């Protein structure tokens, strides 16, 4: 392992199980790491898999994609994560398995010889005490800026804890519903401003589905993007993760926020034209610098 500054990605890796027995690699942190690897950012992904066929499949896919596997722990008791995906209209609905291997990420196995440019995490993997303690140790070890990707899934979150994670973050991404749940309904921009000021964030990004996304900067400027008309639609699974990954790529490579947002929106629109969140061909990324 070199001391190159790179993003650390912490959290769940799992299989999204679609109707018709179609299983696709997923988990918001894994999706982000997958994209960042294709974009040349060499992320260090920290998670935990079971000692089972799905876990072996994940390890093989990471190796084939070029992702580092040094942060991928193996659990001999708990199985690899699974999520049942069902669609109501065009929107995915998730049934998330409890007591998955990623709930038991061990602090003793965390890396101790890298210099991260940033640390990314979501909220799902912090539902368990073990992984929460490991993540706290990671933050204590590396005083790097934090990108929080809020994912309020089913009953697997606690409002007071999510608000604490927001206060420890530098940048935060939420969807419109999550912003309302955490900070109340009202004028979108006013609520974003209240979120930014309460948690002293440098950036608040709110995704708006088919209406695009809006960001609030540390200089209190709003930047909005709207997607082009969608030529091909399969599902929206992973679209927000795709947006996040390109925005992070922009932060890592000193892009302007406007350019990063525009490119992120184009990529998120491309993702909804395929099944699942993890393209298998790196040519898919060719239009991103």
Topology:
Layout: E1 5-10, E2 14-18, E3 22-26, H1 28-38, E4 44-50, H2 53-65, E5 72-75, E6 81-88, E7 91-96, E8 115-121, H3 129-141, E9 146-149, H4 159-167, E10 171-175, H5 176-183, H6 188-199, E11 203-207, E12 213-217, E13 222-225, H7 239-252, H8 257-271
Parallel strand pairs: 1-4, 1-8, 2-6, 4-5, 8-9, 9-10, 10-11
Antiparallel strand pairs: 2-3, 6-7, 11-12, 12-13
Helix pairs in contact: 1-7, 5-6, 7-8
Can you walk through the features of this model?
This protein is α/β, with parallel strands linked by helices and about 290 residues long. It has a single domain, classed as Ribokinase (UDP-N-acetylmuramoyl-L-alanine:D-glutamate ligase), CATH 3.40.1190. The protein is built from 8 helices and 13 strands. The mean pLDDT is about 90.
Instruction: Report the sheet-strand fraction.
Output: 15-25%
- Per CATH, the superfamily is Ribokinase
Helical element count?
8
**Strand arrangement across the biggest beta sheet:** 5-4-1-8-9-10-11-12-13
**Low-pLDDT segments:** none
The level 1 CATH classification is Alpha Beta
Largest sheet properties: 9 strands, mixed
Computed Rg: 18 Å
Number of domains: 1
Give a count of the beta strands, DSSP E runs of length 2 or more. Answer: 13
The percent range for helix content is 25-40%
CATH topology: UDP-N-acetylmuramoyl-L-alanine:D-glutamate ligase
Mean pLDDT: 92
Shape: globular
Query: What is the level-2 CATH architecture name?
Result: 3-Layer(aba) Sandwich
Q: State the secondary-structure class.
A: alpha/beta
Give the ordered list of helices and strands.
EEEHEHEEEEHEHEHHEEEHH
């Amino acid at each position: 392992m070199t001391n190159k500054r790179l993003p650390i990605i912490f959290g769940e890796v799992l299989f999204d199980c679609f109707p018709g027995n179609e299983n696709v690699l997923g988990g918001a942190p894994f999706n982000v790491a997958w994209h960042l690897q294709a974009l040349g950012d060499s992320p260090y992904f920290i998670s935990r898999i079971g000692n089972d066929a799905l876990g072996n499949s994940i390890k093989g896919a990471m190796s084939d994609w070029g992702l580092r596997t040094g942060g991928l722990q193996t659990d001999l008791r708990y199985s690899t994560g699974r999520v049942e995906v069902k669609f109501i209209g065009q929107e995915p609905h998730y049934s998330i398995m409890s007591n998955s291997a990623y709930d038991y990420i061990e602090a003793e196995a965390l890396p101790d010889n890298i210099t991260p440019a940033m640390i990314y995490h979501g909220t799902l993997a912090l539902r368990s005490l073990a992984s929460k303690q490991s993540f706290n140790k990671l933050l204590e070890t590396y005083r790097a800026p934090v990108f929080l990707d809020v994912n309020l899934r089913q009953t697997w979150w606690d409002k007071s804890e999510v608000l604490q994670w927001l206060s420890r973050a530098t940048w935060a991404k939420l969807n419109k519903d999550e912003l309302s749940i955490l900070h109340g309904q009202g004028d979108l921009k006013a609520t974003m401003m209240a979120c930014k000021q309460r948690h002293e964030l440098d950036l608040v990004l709110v995704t708006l589905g088919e209406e695009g996304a809006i960001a609030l900067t540390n200089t209190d400027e709003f930047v909005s993007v709207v997607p082009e008309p969608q030529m091909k639609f399969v599902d929206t699974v992973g679209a927000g993760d795709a947006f996040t990954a390109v925005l992070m790529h922009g932060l890592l490579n000193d892009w302007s926020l406007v350019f990063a947002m525009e490119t992120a929106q184009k990529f998120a629109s491309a993702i909804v034209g395929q099944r699942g969140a993890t393209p298998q061909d790196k040519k898919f990324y060719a239009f991103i610098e």
